[in-house]
């Protein structure tokens, strides 16, 4: 089906709910491209071609099997509606923003090519209930003057900020499938940008005591700006 699948709303993660509520096998049944994190916030998840990788806080990627657990992941059964190229030197987010026909639709994104000035991050494993905004202070960042690989992720409309990261959210996996992370910034040298529009969103609501008793009415927008966008 042409739909994004979310294993939980991002607000639960912001609140420090890092218990895995779905397995990688569950996630891969819903889509073959996407991103997320792992139980106890143990690194960044990259889903590409129906396989899943875990990027640890040293930036090292390793493939995980279907039993790995996640508190938050977003995937889609990817099929490119459009494939475009942009001029060398274009900022990655600017390139995506310039290609989407409307900011009010969800898009799955796959960008394959060579990037310059790439900065990505990963996070160390956490105790439960540490607010995500605190965790962001411990993030490790990694710089690649030049890197070949794939960026996978989503464009999410601003009005969905309590369920997914608004705007452009991309995770990187290098061509050797050995390094990666959550994209903070970078430019395109030469790459093809494939977009799929997603007019539906399926979201699971975890049936855990933590989720059922959490106060999820917070305004996530300011915190997400700190956590997901800055280096
Ligand atoms: Zn991310």
From TrEMBL:
Cross-referenced InterPro entries: Acetolactate_a_deCO2ase
Domain of life: Bacteria
GO MF assignments: acetolactate decarboxylase activity
Metabolic or biological pathway, per its Swiss-Prot or TrEMBL entry: Polyol metabolism; (R,R)-butane-2,3-diol biosynthesis; (R,R)-butane-2,3-diol from pyruvate: step 2/3
GO BP field: acetoin biosynthetic process
SUPFAM superfamilies, per the entry: AF0104/ALDC/Ptd012-like
Pfam family, one: AAL_decarboxy
This enzyme's EC code(s): 4.1.1.5
Key words of the record: Acetoin biosynthesis, Decarboxylase, Lyase
Catalytic activity field: (2S)-2-acetolactate + H(+) = (R)-acetoin + CO2
Enzyme class: lyase
Family: Belongs to the alpha-acetolactate decarboxylase family.
PANTHER family: ALPHA-ACETOLACTATE DECARBOXYLASE
Entry protein name: Alpha-acetolactate decarboxylase
Taxonomic lineage: Bacteria, Pseudomonadati, Pseudomonadota, Alphaproteobacteria, Acetobacterales
